[in-house]
Amino acid sequence: MSRHQDSDKSHPGSGRQGGYKKNSNSRGNAPIRKAPSKFGPKPDAAKSPAAKGPKSPKKPSNPDEIRLNRYISNSGMCSRRDADIYIQSGNVRVNGEVITEMGYKVKLSDTVQFDGVNITPEKKEYILLNKPKNFSTAGDDSQGSANVLDLVRGSSKANLMPVGRMDKTTTGLLLFTNDTEIIQKFTAPNQRSSKVYQVTLDKNLKFEDLERIQKGLTIDDHRVYVEEITYIEDQPKSEIGLKMKTSNVKIVRRIFEHLKYDVLKVDRVTFAGLTKKNLPRGDWRFLTEQEIINLKNA
To answer: Cα–Cα distance between 177 and 122 in angstroms, integer?
Structure first.
């Protein structure tokens, strides 16, 4: 048989011998296969799409539902931590039913009773007032007297309360909020935030009295300390700057009255980092988000 014999499909031979050539996948003759795209589904997932089972959709949170302790705190009754205690004690009802479950969620349309009183949640709001003279923070003033709440009444529908007390003659920064935690924080005896007062006396403050105040005084069997006391630059020696942690203006007055000075004026110029900048006397403004954060960390 010659080297180049006819091709016979019934007796295939090698291609070199002229016989019928079998399809071969060796030496690069394999059929072209597309590589799986790295953006497509994985081969295993394509073969068995139901292998892992369908994922259950995440249950969306209901914007009309909030935790019961937050509801109570927002209402201004107490802090969240205290609300948990009241809930566990059985003092809270939702739609007439006593709730003692921690983490229980209520709808805004639910009727919530706290110690038998219907309450409603409020958004936390913070307002800074530059208080003028002749307005008091006391709730028991005689009829017809002006109250600081009259100055901020149109600012919000929330149940705002002043943080600390100021008499009629005291001026300067006064914070209002419906956040009970902030109110408790800044009226507690051991609170740490600093306040700066400018005090006007009926006569020049003697330097030895200034030093006595700086070292601390004993007033009514209580030791009273200040952080700093200075004369106001370019002002008479009757103008004094006083830095201390208390928000009780009565203590500021008592310091000088104890040393036989009459206090003509007290003006709070800073409060926990807040200042009177761009806030004329008698005006108010809402705190910024950053100021609220600073206030909570003060």
So the answer is: 11
- What φ, ψ does residue 130 adopt, rounded to 5°? -95, 95
What does the chain come to in residues?
298
Beta bridge partners of 51: none
Query: 37 is written with which tokens?
Result: 């795209």
**Pairwise CA distance, residues 119 & 105, whole Å:** 15
- Expressed in angstroms, the distance from the first to the final Cα of the chain is 106
CA 75 to chain centre: 16
What pLDDT does residue 264 have?
A: 96
Q: Which two tokens stand for residue 91?
A: 């003092």
Question: Alpha-carbon distance 239 to 231, whole Å?
Answer: 6
Q: Write out residues in the chain with pLDDT < 50, as ranges.
A: 1-5, 7, 9-10, 14-20, 26-28, 30, 38, 45-46, 49, 140-141
How far apart CA 227 and CA 230 sit, in angstroms, is 10
Strand partners for 176: 127, 162
Contact (Cβ atoms closer than 8 angstroms) between residue 199 and residue 252: yes
Quickly count helices (H) and strands (E) in the chain: 8, 17
> 């954060």: which residue's tokens?
293
Rounded-to-integer distance, Cα 13 and Cα 15, Å: 6
Which pLDDT tens digit goes with each residue over 149-169? 989 988 887 888 999 888 889
